[in-house]
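Field notebook, page 194. I keep forgetting to write these up properly, so this time I am using the form the group agreed on. The chain and the ligand, guanosine-5'-monophosphate, are recorded exactly as supplied. Prediction of the bound pose follows.
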Amino acid sequence: MQDPGRLIILSGPSGAGKSTVVRELIATCPLPLELSVSATTRAARTGEIDGREYHFVSSEEFAAMRGRGEFLECKEVFGRHWYGTPVAQVDEGLRAGKWMILEIDVQGALSVMEQRRDALSFFVHPGTREELEKRLRRRGTDDEASIQRRLEVAEVELTALSCYQFEIINRQVDLAVEEICRWLKQNAEGAKHA
Ligand code: 5GP
């Protein structure tokens, strides 16, 4: 019989290096990992491709998808744009034995934790506010107001840390990735022997 898939939630402040961690995790961890591609109303950044980083949709399309119940969760992030996890893609992946990764904000994560009690949850952060600020500036994708807003949201998000099963301090990407992969493999072993 097909091994069941698992749902993995990964959150953390914007600028914590989550996307890099997820990319490296999928490339190196020997489990059938797949990233769930969210829908968003924000515009694509340079280098982002529709259907790869996100499904970029208009506000009208997003509202219609929401109305049809197509999201496992959806939230307005940073009070500006909507983001949602397409439930069909996630459940198809799980049925096919995939370990589906949701890279989503804290509000969305808390909602998924309530609905899917067996989800594994990771909170990735860079350790200190100073380090986070440095990374947001280095990334160069946000203006000053947006950086300040992201730092404020990060402080609020940190208060939800205790709701997650695993805290990962991302000082060095390869080490953070190894740590997550180790936890996931342990979980896979545990499930086999349960
Ligand atoms: P960005 O615009 O920088 O790609 O993402 C902004 C924030 O939205 C990140 O914290 C990211 O994790 C979150 N996010 C991305 N997709 C989703 C989603 O489907 N649902 C929720 N709740 N948050 C999301």
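OBSERVATIONS:
- The radius of gyration is 16 Å.
- Residues 14, 38, 42, 73, 75, 77, 83-85, 103-105, 107-108 surround guanosine-5'-monophosphate (CB under 6 Å).
FOLLOW-UP: compare against the apo run.
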